[in-house]
Amino acid sequence: MYGCEAWTISKQTQKKLEATEMWFLRRMLRISWTAKKTNDTVLEEAHTTRLLISKIRKRQATFFGHVMRREKLENLVTTGMLEGKHSRGKQREKLIEGLADWLKAGKSLEAIEATKDRKKWRTMVANAVKQGT
């Protein structure tokens, strides 16, 4: 989890993280891979929900809020407002787009504006963590 605040989590990366988390749970509970147990029953036995993705997203959101309130070079880099040419092909997903989807903020500009008010930003993050998406 070191440095996860700067990761961009695509659908493929999210699936890999969820698979890794499930592997960890099965190892901790000593459930053999030959035992035909579904992931839902493993989660019920562990008395937990999927925590890894929500913990990463929460750390990203708090870091993002901190960077956006500072309004320095990190702000420009994170928002992608630097001058220059775009690379060829499909553009990579930005951190802000993933967070806006997770927070259900609609557009990324709405998420940026919400960071200005620390209390509003914290409630948005807390609500997203409660929903467990």
UniProtKB/TrEMBL annotation:
Species per Swiss-Prot/TrEMBL record: Plakobranchus ocellatus
GO-annotated molecular function: endonuclease activity
Name of this protein: Endonuclease-reverse transcriptase
Keyword annotations of the record: Endonuclease, Hydrolase, Nuclease
Phylogenetic lineage: Eukaryota, Metazoa, Spiralia, Lophotrochozoa, Mollusca
UniProt KW Nuclease keyword: yes
